[in-house]
Amino acid sequence: MGRKALPMTAEIALEQPLAPNLMNNLNALAEHQQTIMDKYGEGLPYERERIVHEARFYMAQSAEAMLEVGKRLIILKENEPHGDFMKIVEGNLGLSYRTAARVMQVLIKYLSPTLQSKLPALATLGKIKLFELMTEDDENLAALAEGGTIAGLTLDEVDRMSVRELKAKLRETRDNLEASRRLVNEKDQKTNELNENRLLTQHRPLGEEGIRQLREEIGLVAFDVKAMLMRRFREGLEKLSSHSGDITSHTDYLASLLNNIDFKINVLRSCFALPRHAVSESAPDWVKDDNDAKDADFQLPEHLCGTGGNNGEEAVL
Q1: What average pLDDT does this structure show over 170-176?
Q2: Could you give the CA distance from residue 87 to residue 76 in angstroms, rounded to a whole number?
Q3: Is 92 helix (H, G, I), strand (E, B) or coil?
């Protein structure tokens, strides 16, 4: 006697709609995959077998073909799950994932807006050299393709040298640049430390010796200013005064230069409340100002206003 069939109590679940966020993610993924196909797929739909076959073909070709491999790898990566992509790269193409990643990076690098038009010139260097140059700035590589240099090398020089020589030259250039940056940073750090020390010490009492040294420093600056004024500046005044062309007289121009210098001096005098003639109380009467005298009435002796020798200049100083 056969068993009686048990009645079915489980109901078939109705089809449930996908969650809105899942639909949005799937749509975004589809749009991204289509963007990749539009950029690298040459107008053809995605077919795994065809893409793998084309990648194999280009792997045996030149540097330009390597970039075509990069296109196929990016297409595969964007359309296949990560595990399947790894199996295709290692099993079907015989590449390590690290090599595949570098090829994709090279493609993205040399198809950038800055370098895409320069790619035919750069591709002549070969696959390995393109790898070595990948870390350089796009602007520098574009300049190299246009006849400039990179690491001091022209495109022809890069083409003629071996990969080992290129690698050594690029490493040397990077090391020198890094050393220069470190030196600049060290100088900036020392400068900042000096400025901080000055801020800390500028309000401290200097003491008698410190004041003496500071006065000597200011005196040396004043001597340099006077030397510049009475030598180089005076030579310029003399040369200009001895020439005339369309401008028949330089009097107004030269006077304005001296007036400007005098104005700056008066600004300093006003800022520090300095008298026009600094005279100590113990100075003799003949050194002190005569309030009835006027500076405009004083005229230098002729030998001091002329083009005399050093003695005249030193007297003025």
Answers
A1: 86
A2: 11
A3: helix
**Average pLDDT over every residue of 13-26:** 61
260 residue type, one letter: N
More confident residue, 11 or 58: 58
Q: Which helix (H) or strand (E) holds 166?
A: helix 163-201
For helices 97-110 and 63-79, the axis angle rounded to 10 degrees is: 110
- Helix, strand, or coil here: 282? coil
Structure tokens given for 252: 């107004």
CA nearest neighbour of 272 among 218, 206, 228? 218
153 beta partners = 150
Tell me what pLDDT residue 87 has: 92
CB 116 within 8 A of CB 39: no
Which residues have C-beta within 8 Å of that of residue 231, sequence separation ≥ 6?
313
Between these two residues, 2 and 86, which has the higher pLDDT value?
86
Query: Is residue 233 predicted with pLDDT exceeding 50?
Result: yes
Gap between the Cα atoms of 276 and 289, Å rounded: 9
Domain boundaries, the chain: 22-111, 117-202
Task: Confirm if 83 and 127 have CB atoms less than 8 A apart.
Answer: no
**Mean pLDDT throughout 194-219?**
71
Helix (H) or strand (E) holding 142: helix 138-145
Tally helices (H) and strands (E) across the chain: 15, 0
Taking Cα atoms as reference points, which of 35, 75, 34, 39 lies closest to residue 55? 75
How many other CB atoms are found less than 10 A from the CB of residue 158? Answer: 23
Q: Is the pLDDT of residue 278 over 80?
A: no
State residue 150 phi and psi, 5-degree precision: -140, 130
Calculate the alpha carbon distances from 220 to 205, 217, 225 in Å: 22, 5, 9
The whole-model pTM stands at: 0.43
